[in-house]
Structure formats: structure tokens, C-alpha cells
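Could you help me review a protein record that somebody else here produced? This is what I was given.
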Amino acid sequence: FSSIRFMVSGGAPLGQDILETFKTRKSIRIWEGYGLTEAGPNNFLANGKLGSVGHPMPHVDAKILDPDGNEVPAGEEGEIWLRGPHICAGYWNKPEESAKAISGGWFKTGDFGRIDADGHFAIVGRLKDMIISGGANIYPAEIERAIETHPAVAGVAVIGVPDDKWGEVGKAVVELNAGSTLSFEELKDFLSDRLGKFKIPKYMVAIDELPRTVASGKVQKFILKDKHGRADND
């Protein structure tokens, strides 16, 4: 790393363990970018603030709305909407999908985020991945970042599974490092001082390897939901 001065990350929110590692490497700055197929490779001016993607670029309008279409105040979470000359006109031969995604020139990203008091945006997670448990919104990305800091964990995906009492609860699908072991009780103990109790997954399963896309390496959660979407520690 002697010749590296800064790095840019994209594709998914950075894991907490990676952020913590870069805190100790004072000579290397890491910036998070945020782009989409519909809105180009980046939309914010990354400023090196850990956990933030920065301020909107000069040509980009960005806001965060609640489910009723109202802008939320600083610190509260909602869906990120983007507007600008770089936004796509729609989806080819898919007028209904286009109408749902774009409203008055604003693109509904399907990503949850928040703005801090200084106007920095942070990405919380995907709307479609959100778990609604007992009326509370739980974002898997936050839980995954916490679990990834465990030394036995190579990768993790948190999915929602049905629950008679809460409607839906979290289940951690964990890929362990070679030669490592991790029980569900150990995981719960590890998370007890890192997450609110209601965010800690109710179930866990360890697998050999998480299914990922070839192009971007993103975890294919639909495969995990199909195979492990039951309320048990299978």
C-alpha cells in the first residue's frame, strides 16, 4: 500500500470492518461512490467522511422521501430520489415500469438513505431488502456490516423470513472463513452490544459459499430466500 493515496468503493455500502481498517491507515483515504444503471456511475462528490457518499454533484438534485412522498428531516431515513440531465428517460418498451420509477423527472432509486446535519448523504440499504418486523423497519445492510466484523465471518447476507408473531424476522446466512466455526448463540452474543435487540437475527445458517453475480460479485439474495427462506436454523 506504500504508493496508494486514496481508493474509491462502489457497488454496495462498505463493510464496517473495512471502514475500521482504513481508519488505522492514515496515509490512505477511502471514498464511497454511489451510482446506478439508470443514473450513471456516480451522483455524489465523495469527501472521505466514513460511512458517507458525500454531497450531490453540481448537476444532480437529490432528496430523501418517506412513503407518503414527504421529504424527511436530517437524520431520518427514507428513499433516495435523484434528478438531473443524466437520468435515463425510462426502460425500453416497459412503460409501466418507467412510470413507476420516474416521476416528474425524479428517479426513485429503491435505496434507503439519510442526510446528516451537514448535508452528507449515507446509504442505508435496498428498499426491497427491508425487513418489517412488528412494525419496525430493519435494514439488512446495517446488520450485515456488524456481522462482517466477526473474525470468523468471510461474508454474510441477512434475509427476511416469515414469523407468526412479528410478521417477519431476520435470518443471517453466513459464509465462514476456512477452518472457522460460529454458533448462533455466539453470533447473538457478539451482536448484543453492536445492534439493538430487535435488529439481531432470530435465525442463522452457515453455508460454504454465498451465491454471487459474476460481473459485480453482489450476493444473489433471491437464491438465498428460495433455499433458506424458512424460520429455522437450517
The helical segments are 16-24, 95-101, 140-147, 184-191, 221-228. The mean pLDDT is 91. The two ends are 41 Å apart (CA to CA). The CA atoms of residues 96 and 172 lie 34 Å apart.
